[in-house]
Amino acid sequence: MKIATLLAGVAAVALTASAASADTINRGQFGGNGPLAVNVQGGTFLGDIAAGLNRINAQSSGSPISAWHAFGGSQGDNGTAANNDGATFTLKGVVSTDCAYYSGSSNSQTIDFGTIGIFASDNTGPAAAFDMTAPANVTIDSNLAGCNTSNTVTLSKSDIRGLVNNSAAGYDTNVFQANLPFSVTANYTAGAVGVAGAASPTSLVLTAASNSVSAQHGAWKSAMALNVNIPVPSKSLLAGSYQGDLTVNIAAF
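Given the sequence above, the corresponding structure tokens read:
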């Protein structure tokens, strides 16, 4: 076999690389027409022979042996390769708890009915004399009320009797009374504790006979209207001032 023919048969060399391994390249092939008339190729052992033959051939153009030799290598991975990778980032922040009820520049406001009318003329007859002429009422609107967490809305009076007249004059309890009972209805929009969903119109009623009432809600905000009603009492009114406090409180829990 001619050397040129042998070399032509091995001219196509495929180069491949493993994704994760590091290899030392030492491969070769040799053959000829003499005692070593072989045509084999293999790993390190035959690569060493091919390398030696190439060195001999480089020094002697009369060698009867043809050979090729490939040598080199590559560096393997630094770390562990994987077919997927990623990361999780925890994003966090804190929101302060806040409950609100807007009542202007002060949390204490005075709602003055002025004169609570009575039948004052002497021609009313004894049945109507000194009686309250008509119910008194007021609506207290705020465009901001609510809380950004679970909360309790409470309506309460400073005295269960309502508005109280502390006159020291003394009076006949059969025909006069020193108090004006009142009721309150709070209207706002709120939902139940632990329920996520659209809130509904809510009414919280403090009756004339009650000192306080409360309701629990999840986070809410809306306008709130306090409708206060003082009915005409069954007995006549004393001279002097009738006064009492209504408190609305929105507290987180």
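DSSP finds two helices and 16 strands in the chain. Try to locate this feature in the token string yourself.
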